[in-house]
């Protein structure tokens, strides 16, 4: 076999002449060299496969890490957006409080206008998933209320209940945006 044919055969699938010594038509000296060449090529092939497997593993780990980063980043952006909206809405809550106070001191015509504005304000809060916390008559719960006053309980009234709400609280889901300020019986 010519040298070019041997190189072509070795490049394609190893040395086909060395598959068996009987198939090799060369002399004994040539047959002794060819298995060494095949062993070197097999070792090089195994090293290349091992290196390729290492690169594939690194690629898969990097792809998974990037996917996790993307998901974390998306969640962080979503949370930041919702927190930003909540911050603005918390700043608007005193406007609603003032509208409710204005209802108690106005004439009938003004009352109708303020009630319309207050309804639209409450609709805005409802659309944003914000609900009022009004624990009047319920047991005091520090996860939703802030006790700013206490009063001795009357006969037949158990201590630890909310007697009066001074400032309504608000929450979105389980997150409290503003704690209700209350008077508690002791």
Q: What's the structural blueprint in terms of helices and strands?
A:
Layout: H1 3-13, H2 28-103, H3 108-127, E1 130-133, E2 145-151, E3 162-167, E4 169-172, E5 175-178, E6 180-185
Parallel strand pairs: 2-6
Antiparallel strand pairs: 1-4, 3-6, 4-5
Helix pairs in contact: 2-3
Task: Considering the chains and any ligands shown, give keywords for the structure.
elongated; alpha+beta; disordered N terminus; Nucleotide Exchange Factor Grpe, Chain A, domain 2; 6 strands; 3-stranded antiparallel β-sheet; 186 residues; single chain; 3-stranded mixed β-sheet
Report on the structure:
This protein is of the alpha+beta class and 186 residues long. The protein has a domain at 130-186: Head domain of nucleotide exchange factor GrpE (Nucleotide Exchange Factor Grpe, Chain A, domain 2, Roll). It is 58% helix and 17% strand. It contains 3 helices and 6 strands. The chain has helices spanning 3-13, 28-103, 108-127; strands spanning 130-133, 145-151, 162-167, 169-172, 175-178, 180-185. Strands 1-4-5 form a 3-stranded antiparallel beta sheet. A 3-stranded mixed beta sheet has the order 2-6-3, with no helix packed on it. Strand 4 (169-172) and strand 5 (175-178) form a beta hairpin. Helix 2 packs antiparallel against helix 3. It is elongated and about 110 Å long.
Question: Count the helices. How many?
Answer: 3
> What is the 3D shape?
elongated
Main sheet attributes: strand count, strand direction, barrel closure:
3 strands, antiparallel
What is the terminal-to-terminal distance?
A: 106 Å
Which sequence of SSEs, written as H and E, runs from N to C? HHHEEEEEE
